[in-house]
Each structure stands twice: as structure tokens, then as C-alpha cells.
Amino acid sequence: MGWLYAEGDNESEGDNHEGWVVAVLSDGTDAERDTFEDAEETWKRRVNWAWSYKYDGHEGRRKAQGLRAICHCGWRGPRRPADFTDPDACDVQLKREWERHCEISLWRMQTQRMKRLISDLDEAFDQLTGRPTPEGEPARPLLATHAATSLLMNVEAWQRDAVRAARTAGFSWDEIAGPLMMSKQSAHEKFAKHVDADPEERTAPA
User: Fold this and answer.
1) SS3 state of residue 82
2) Is the link from the previous residue into 132 a cis peptide, with omega within 30 of 0?
3) What are phi and psi of 23, to 5 degrees?
4) Is the CB of residue 17 less than 8 Å from the CB of residue 106?
5) Measured distance CA(9)–CA(23) in Å, rounded
6) pLDDT in tens for each of the 206 residues of the chain?
7) Which of 64, 93, 106, 171 could tie 175 with a disulfide, CB 3.0–4.6 Å?
8) Of 185, 159, 160, which is closest to residue 172 (Cα–Cα)?
């Protein structure tokens, strides 16, 4: 009944997060997590989550006063209104909040693809600089120097694009500063002129 945020190919890795929606009851407590029996019943009723009928206030059932997304790691999202006329819309909003929580929590965790790319680059530069050089393949230190310089120029552009995407997605400068490994003030001073300006201003010649 939950969402799984899987880093890498193995969904059972310890750094994965699992989230789900719970009803907030009248006394302010969170209802229990849905069970597999609830999942079967929700399928029959053609709705996504059991809260839309388990806590609708009909036939003596308790009525949800709100909803929240929670995560297995202990994170609890803010309370949101429960719209029994459109439970799918509630689920979509809550899932977005949970996905945002996952992104903030897991920025240190590289995907398997990124790990492979970095490993391939390390191996290529080791060969080009002669540490170690496979038999019959000469070292190319000047090529390594040029490649590293080109990569550095690309990395700066990728970094700006990544920060711009994070700002577009609604992340604050405080949240972005962590992955940049700098202070909030330094992050803002370095990137704000590239990120927060209008697209036409960014592309205009100096």
C-alpha cells in the first residue's frame, strides 16, 4: 500500500524509503497504516487508499480530520485536508511531499548509474596518466590534462543547471546549500544571478 523510493537496482537496500498516507483522526493521532486486506478492498472500490472509506464517517466509522504522508524512516509530513470527493488528488499531493522528503534525505546517495560513470572516469584517467598503464598502451598525460579541463568546464555548467532545476522544483537555498557543500549565503551569491534571473536575461550577452 506504500510508495518505494529505490536507490539503485536493489529495492531492498537499506537506504531506500517507503512512504504511505494515513488519516489524521479527531484527537490528532494518526490512524494505523493500511494492511494487505485494505489493499484488496481498495482495489474492489476502485480507489487508491483505504482512508477514503475506512474513515469517511459513515455507518459509525470514524471520520478523518485530515491526512498526512509518513515515511518508514520516521518522517511525518504536515497535516493536509481530506477531500473524500477526490481521493486521488489528495494522494498525488501527498506523494509529491513524500518524494520531496526523499530527495532531501538521499542527496548523498549516488545512483548505480552515477557510480558506474564515476568509476569509468577514474579508470580512464588512471590509464591516461600511466597509473597503471595496460601493457602496450602508452600513457597520454596531455590528453588527460585536456580532458580534465574540458570536464571541469562542463561540470560548472552542469552544476548551474542542477541548481536551476532544484530551484524550479521549489527547493530553498538552504536545502540546496547542503549538496553544494557550502553555506546558504555562498550558494546564493554564486548561483542566484544564473538561476533566479529570467531566461532571456541569462542568455543575453554580457
Assistant:
1) coil
2) yes
3) -80, 140
4) yes
5) 32
6) 567 765 544 444 445 788 889 999 999 999 988 777 777 777 666 666 788 888 999 999 999 999 999 998 899 999 999 999 998 899 899 999 999 999 998 888 877 888 899 999 998 898 898 876 666 678 899 999 999 999 999 999 999 999 999 999 999 999 999 999 999 999 999 999 888 654 443 443 33
7) 171
8) 185
Per DSSP, 15 falls in state T
φ, ψ dihedrals at 195, nearest 5°: -95, -45
DSSP 8-state code for residue 63: B
Rounded alpha-carbon distances, angstroms, from residue 201 to 92, 144, 198? 34, 35, 5
Return contacts of 80-84, CB within 8 angstroms, 24+ apart: 82/23, 82/24, 82/51, 82/55, 84/52, 84/56
The closest of 122, 125, 117 to 144, measured between CA atoms, is 125
Query: Strands, E, within the chain: which ranges?
Result: 3-5, 17-24, 66-71
**For the chain, first and last CA: distance in Å?**
53
pTM of the full structure: 0.71
Region for residue 41 given its phi and psi (left: phi exceeds 0; alpha: psi -120 to 50; beta: otherwise): alpha
- Give the cell for residue 75: 518522517
